[in-house]
Amino acid sequence: QVQLVESGGGLVQAGDSLRLSCAASGYPFRTYLMAWFRQAPGKERELVAVMATGGSSDVADSVKGRFTISRDNAKNTVYLQMNSLKPEDTALYLCAMKDISTSTYEYWGQGTQVTVSS
Question: N or C: which end of the chain has fewer CB atoms below 10 A?
């Protein structure tokens, strides 16, 4: 059974940095996408960053230049480095995973809250 466990969220001030971690286990597929989404109250869930098995990655325009996605294969962990945080980055950040051949993210973590004060 796939398990995704996020950590690293917290309360920070505008301009600060945070690094989120998502530890994955139990996935049965060889090629996959791992992604970070965020969900703010009253807003739609937003795809923030995604990384494929081969290492290619992308981030949303709203965070480009500030957020970076990376991974440690030995630890089966994906990271989201968030710099120059803004109050509008406040959200529940969720890690998700899917087989590269499917259209929807099948597996989700519980999320980690990021709150940025002005």
Answer: N
